[in-house]
Amino acid sequence: MSLKHIRRLSHAGIRERRPHRHDDGQLFTIRTGVVAIEADGGRWVMPTGCIAWIPPGIVHGASVQGGMVGTSLYFDGTWSRAAMPDTVKVARLSPLLDALLGALTSNEAPTGTALDHYLAVFADAFAREPAQTLFLPMPREPRLVRMATRMLAAPDDNTGLDGWAARIGMSRRTLTRRFQAETGWTIGQWRQQMRLLAAMERLAAGHSVTAIALDLGYASVSSFIAVFRRYLGTTPRAFMPAGGAARSRSLR
User: Fold this and answer.
1) What residues contact 153, with CB distance under 8 A and at least 6 apart?
2) Are 216 and 101 within 8 A, CB to CB?
3) Residue 108 CB partners (closer than 8 Å, separation 6+)
4) How many other C-beta atoms lie within 10 A of the C-beta of residue 10?
5) What are the residue boundaries of the HTH araC/xylS-type domain, all occurrences included (predicted)?
6) Cα(182)–Cα(44) distance, integer angstroms
């Protein structure tokens, strides 16, 4: 059977799931809250109203900040590899996808041939939905990994390129060239994305806008609000209304 298991998700407070893998494909939706996924050389942040796909065999972990409610579906590995993407994908939960998931998870869910038809339509609709840009690629070179990890741990650290080059024992030119070659982004773009994704998680956990601006190294609260609005299309305070979600834009 293609659809093997359905699990309702409900977590309060802060929760982390250590990296793991399974032979089934996993699809999950977020109805309220924010979830951060680490997998396949990157980090995604899923706000309310998103849907994520984890292919079979991919090592992944997740963390929840604040309350979260959602649904997780597990699919047979054979179907997953034949019908769904072979990489992690996060997309908006469109009305069509939402309606199909509602049918698949209802008490009168289709079975047999009807289920196959529903899943075929779902897979096609999911493939057509553009991937969200709330993603942070990670470098692979060990020294660059150390730098990125330190920046994630201390997002308020405003060390410049020369400072980071000295810290990790790499010339400024090599640092900038290799980082962009491995992530596709400049260090400035990467740091901006990192701070915005961290802000989303902190907002979901109930932190104040002022505390977040200071914790993330912004020069002022107003500058944080301006950057957040420019890239996410809404203010930080309006980002997490009950059951609401921000519109995402490319941060590159």
Assistant:
1) none
2) no
3) none
4) 12
5) 142-242
6) 17
Instruction: Show the tokens assigned to 38.
Output: 């680490």
Which domains does the chain possess?
3-128 (2.60.120.810), 138-239 (1.10.10.60)
Residues 6+ apart with CB under 8 A from 154: none
pLDDT tens for each residue of 158-174: 899 999 999 999 999 99
| Token pair for 73 | 């579906």
- Give, as one character, the DSSP assignment of residue 241: -
Tens of pLDDT, residue by residue over 181-207, are 999 999 999 999 999 999 988 887 788
Helix ranges (H only) for the chain are 77-83, 95-104, 112-128, 142-153, 161-168, 172-183, 187-204, 209-215, 221-232, 236-239
Percent share of the chain, pLDDT over 90: 62
Contact (CB, 8 A) for 119 and 73: no
What's the CA gap between 238 and 48, in Å, rounded? 13
At 166, list the tokens.
């000295």
- SS3 of 88, please? coil
Among residues 18, 82, 43, which one has the least CA distance to residue 190?
Answer: 43
**208 CB-near residues (< 8 Å, 6+ apart):** none
Enter the DSSP assignment of 105.
Answer: T
Residue with tokens 């050389």: 41
